[in-house]
Amino acid sequence: MTDSNTSGSEFALAIHGGAGTILRSKMTPEREAAYHAGLRRSLDAGRVILADGGSALDAVSAAVMALEDEPLFNAGRGAVYTSAGKQEMDAAVMDGSDRSAGAVAGICGPRNPVLAARAVMEHSGHVLLIGESAMEFCRRQGLAFAEPSYFFTEQRWQALQETLAMRQGGDEDLDESRKHGTVGAVARDRNGNLAAATSTGGMTAKAPGRVGDSPVIGAGTWADNETCAVSATGHGEIFIRYAAAHEIASRMRYAGQTLDDAARAVVIDMLAPAGGSGGIIAVDHAGHVSLPFNCSGMYRGVVKDDGRLLTAIYDEPLIDFRNA
Ligand code: ASP
């Protein structure tokens, strides 16, 4: 999906709630409505900031926080479990105005991992902190923590049991919704600054210590005012190997491709044949938005200066619920 650009001082925000969507055959109208409502809450959280002249960085942080708070999505509350039955969350944020970036990996405790990533960016002098030391840093920063019970969801716990049972029987879990998911946001603010944020529980039954693409700057998260801001979702190992987000920016910078051409080339022509099922959301310096994916669906949404909250799940046009 591509959108027309914004003019000079207009804003744009795109979000995703992961490419691991529930199969259409298993989706109920109630669940579908709940996913759209969760996406709209996130869009609205970012829209309020951007409409008020706030920064892209604040908008993507707020939009991702709203998705982390929503147990339907695999990030923060509702994160998936490792093969050892633990939650290990990864998150990143990047400011396109100066390429400052912060990320965390393998944490469980901070209520909003995206705020942990932002604290790393703003207060640590580093880009990526991991595990226990990252959590100690978050405690010193005064970030809000939550008990393991806050992050627990029956649905993710059952998904782990099913995946482990399949593994024992020698089968690979092919159900995308059970396997993975992620949340992310990209924005262009009224001053023309870009930012991206991504947060995830990773992949169900991943090995303890495994880190995916989300907190790897240039793989699952990227922002640079001269080109674009990108947040990815999908099979993280492949996205890392292809430096997916940075590849999109490079195609724009060095080959003069449009955002949509670059994004599609990477998601459809490069990642898909390599086994990198998933998608990305991206916005460029002019406010064009692109949201390609190469699998059955990606929870996603867009809001622009006119304030319409547009959301979609499957291979379908974005839906404006005000007019639905
Ligand atoms: N990209 C995430 C990871 O590999 C998972 C996902 O987006 O589905 O950790």
* Helix-strand string: EHHEEHEHHHHEEEEHHHEEEEE
Shape: globular
How many β strands by DSSP?
A: 13
User: What percentage of residues falls in helices of 4 or more residues?
Assistant: 25-40%
**Average residue-wise pLDDT:** 94
Largest β sheet strand count, sense and barrel closure: 9 strands, mixed
The ligands bound in this entry are: aspartic acid
Distance between the termini: 19 Å
Question: What's this, in brief?
Answer:
This protein is an alpha+beta fold and 324 residues long.
If you had to describe this structure to a student in words, what would you say it looks like?
This protein is an alpha+beta fold and 324 residues long. The protein has one domain (4-320): (Glycosyl)asparaginase (Glutamine Phosphoribosylpyrophosphate, subunit 1, domain 1), CATH 3.60.20. It is built from ten helices and 13 strands. The protein has helices at residues 29-51, 56-68, 113-123, 131-140, 148-151, 154-168, 176-179, 236-241, 244-255, 259-271, and strands at 12-16, 89-95, 100-107, 128-130, 183-188, 194-200, 221-223, 228-234, 278-284, 289-290, 297-304, 309-314, 319-320. It has a nine-stranded mixed sheet. The protein has a four-stranded antiparallel sheet with strand order 7-8-9-10. The radius of gyration is 18 Å and the shape is globular. The model is unreliable at 1-6 (pLDDT under 50). Bound molecules: aspartic acid. The site of aspartic acid has 17 residues, from β8.
